[in-house]
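In the previous chapter we treated chains in isolation. Here, by contrast, the input contains two separate entities that must be folded as one system, with a combined length of 1175 residues.
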Amino acid sequence: MPSSASETRTKRKRLGEPSGDHLSSGNGELIDHTELISDRDVHKTCYLIKPSGTTRKKAKRNHPFISLDQSIPETDSHVAHRWKLYTTTMANVQEKIERILNDADESTLQRVWKYVTSTQDYDEDAYPQLPVGLVLAGANISNHARLFTNMSKYIEEREGQKVATAVVTLRDASNLRDVLRKIIDQVVGQRKSDDEDEITAPINTVTQSDQTDKRLSYDLDLLVVWLLKHESVQKIVVIVQDADGSEGNLLPEVIRMLFLYRNRLPFVLLLGIATTLPVFNSKIPKRTMRMIDFEVFDVLRSDDGLTRLLDEIMLSSSTQLLLGPNLFRSLMRRYNNHTKNLETFTLAFQHANMTHFFANPLSIMLAPPPAIAQSKNHIVALRTLPSFKSYIDDLMSKEDCDIEQIRKLLTDPTSLVSFVGSCQQQFYEFISGQSTALNLLDVLQDASSIYCSTTVKRTRAEFYADAITGKLKGSPLVREIILFITKMSAATIDNLARLIDQQFDKNSVIRMMKDSWNISTNSGKGSHSKLISNISKSIRDFLDANLNPYTDIVFHELFVFDAVSLCENVFAPKFRATIEKALMQPSYYLGQPLETPVFERPFISVAHTLYRESGLLINIYDYWTAFHQTLAGNNDTETTDNASLTAPNEDHNDSDLIASTPSQSTFSESQTLALFYKAMSELKYLGFLKETSGKRGGNKATVAVLQKMVWDGL
Amino acid sequence: MSDLTSDQLQELALEFPARYNQFDLLNSLISKDKTTNPTAIALTGQPSSGKTCVLRRFLREVRFSHTWLSCDECVSLRVLLQRILAALRAIGTEDPNKLDYSIMCHNFTLFVTQLNDVLRALALEEAHFVVLDRIDELGEPYESFYQLVINIGEMLRYDGITFILISSSSEPRSSVTSTFPHIYFPPYRKAESLAILRNQTPGSIRSILGPTDRELSDVQLTSLWSSYCQVIIDTYFPLYGPDIQQLKATAREAFSTYAQPVLDGVVGILPSNRDSQSGFVKLYKINQPLLTSEELVRNSFVSYVQSAGGTGAIGQHDMPIYSKYLLCAAYLASYNKPRYDIRLFSRIRESRRRIRKSTSHKAKDKINGRNLAPSPFEYERLLAIFQCIVPEKIDSATDIQIQFATLATLKLVTRAGSDSSGGSSMDILESRTKWRVNVSWDIILQIARDIKLQLENYLME
């Protein structure tokens, strides 16, 4: 009986979305990456495994969203509208994210390219060292293959015939010869196909042109000969992807070889470093250090990228959906503690967006279709939102409440929809106010940092969550900044004015505020203090007016997405809990009714139940007896049915376990013993158990005992 | 029989200070006459003691037919053997630079046979020298080859070929007892190093200086250079010793900065000037920051970056915080014995009680643990320690494992038992794995400071 796992043909595909299942269809551009990255590359963000046999039945609707009938009965057009909203929002965001990510890469690529072309040729007197570019690519190694392939392409595209490149990974090269062979193959190979139309010639036999040339494939003299034939080549760029992943002495050896040949071959070495410079430094011997002349490139200034991300996507004028403070904090925590990777952050952001449109039927209200006023369900749902309820309560509690207005909101769908529209407008104003206020805080921090260098500048990402929840309003930090303003000298004011001019547009509120200060006209002591009080007052007023919590907005549930629980489990699945749940309650995953008798469960689950009931050390005989009793206990008539034993269920796919479970518990002792052994080895493999031979009870012979390794919920 | 007259020798010795004896020895040992030459000569001495350039100069002077092979360029012995044969076969052909690599040479027997063939075909009338430069830097063990070359005379049926072995490490043990001529190059002394450093023509000094606005006369240049060399030697000889290459590189690097005040006219250096001494002192004072800074002693990427003013460059590319904690935990797991774990990491009262017990035999451990190799630890132990040192509760086990895998890929932790024992002792199906940390104390301390972890509190020392 072939197991389902052996039937499935696994197909590896690099997918940029952790929740690949939802989006497996619409990720055309990501397939390119598979071409770039060799199959040997083991570092991918995720793998998508597709069972080949079951082609998914093509759905009638042309989008993956489903109607959320449990909360609000929706029509198909509503669902489609949500999907449309999602795609348009995403397309907008996606493009910006791509640009931010690429910009960071692009600038590095350009700097590296400039460096490569600017390196001097070998000259014994002036430039005797090997030029080396240290590319700090960050700890996210899944990016590296793409980055360095892009780098080599980038350089080649711009330099054409003048540069030959080779990208090598030390991880899968065992020794120096391997590395040299790869370099030679790549340099010679790529040129071959250009010049001589010899595409069929195997690239890895370097000696094809000359039958009498029997030089070994790792002899760098081959490159010297090749270089003589290709006079246009001015630089040979060798890119080492994983400079700090090399075994032992390999990298210094490679550097030494390139150094020795640098008078004949115009090498430029680029090293990809995933750790930090001090760590990398400790791996390079001083002797090697003398051979090189290096320059450092920092690829992704992730924190800059984060600020830009906040600026251009999460708090920009086109923002439709605001990321809630809790979710944002959770994302930031993951970013700082675990990944330090902007790409993962953006993916998480996109997923959060998708979840909002997928799971919230009211997300349709971001751009309501004209017919929404007719949809009774939506209107009712809108009225049940807490923010709307408290708004109505507030209106009611006022002395001179406009009863007519309230009645209209509560009864007339059209006026409610238009009220939502006005709330949305209010929301946009809120966002632009927040964004300007954060910008202003940035500028004020810059201005003050010159005078008190001890305080660390806080980035916008640190402010974001506090700002939108209104905690920043009147916080000690803001008060400190205001205090700084009151102490400003004339020069500082000029500096502040200059910074404001740099940072803000001509038409922005801040610029107008600055113009109203009339900085240039003041002279004399009295006017200075007047100016200062003027400035501090206007800034305090501005910050107070704009750092309001988002909860002040009616219907903020529509515009702010803050469901941490929906996302967190997707970003970082808790597999241990899953395994434990599967063992304790297999019916949950097997789709059986809850009240399944114990003996119909998978055997490993039975063993696990007994395991949970025992102490630290488990006598193996007792364990088996209990196991046997559980399985055979309720049916005393033991019939030997060997067929049930022959059913193999090697894999851990629980669905097979059902198949092998007989409908009636008919087990002989030998059968249960075999099943017991299997369950034990599986538990051991999962790390639940350890074999120990403890001497129990004085001088008696050793007793076979199992030691418990895992407790629930630890 | 010697080819150079003593006058010529004197001249060479002027060019190469303190190497008269070596020239003399070479001159008396080898000659054009193929019958009198030994089959092998060894030139030994510390790195950068002039072996290569003395020999090159000598061979140029006497115009012996020779083949020069740099062994450090050959990755393996096979490449070297092939190159020797190819170079020998090219002798006497119309284009000596066009080498014929049609021979593969896999072992010594084949090499000797083919060498015999080549020599027969060549029928040398005069002696030919094969120089094997830096034979100790061949990528592979070279001892047996060394032995072979020394004794090759007994295996060759045709004479006329002499191998000159240049090596800067001590001779292989197997060849210590064999008797063949050695020329020893003693390390240069301070005065000799100075003489070598000073030995530059005005033209080359000018090229080191690079393009300048103001032209200095040859006399001025030489005077400036020689005083500068004295400074360099006095400053860096204690650091580099007789390493001429390094001294030269340092001298070259700093010269243009050093000479800048002279070029600007701030300081005048003229031999005729009575104040030349004071001029030098003034120049030295101006340049003191240059000479005392560590800028020129560049053996680290980090100091370079910091001095270049890239303050943000280091902080930006940081590891995730938990990776740092993991690395610290790995270090603690490697350098603490498991039996101390409860005492160090547990908050249970009971653990404190046992402290007195083991203090008695603590005197035994005298070697500082940091100097020993890290001991392997189990992954679960690492996780347990990690939980203890992390300030907050960990929310995601998946991310931790990913980070650990990343650390392993970056070789910051290595799998124990996978490298040396060939994997035989390791069961890949086993659920427990052993690891060891691969980062030194300095780096760990730096990382621990980043995350404000008092690492010393957790170390048993």
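Residues 607 and 679 of chain A are 6 Å apart (CA to CA). Residues 1-40, 192-209, 636-664 of chain A have pLDDT under 50 and may be disordered. Compare these points with the single-chain example from earlier in the chapter.
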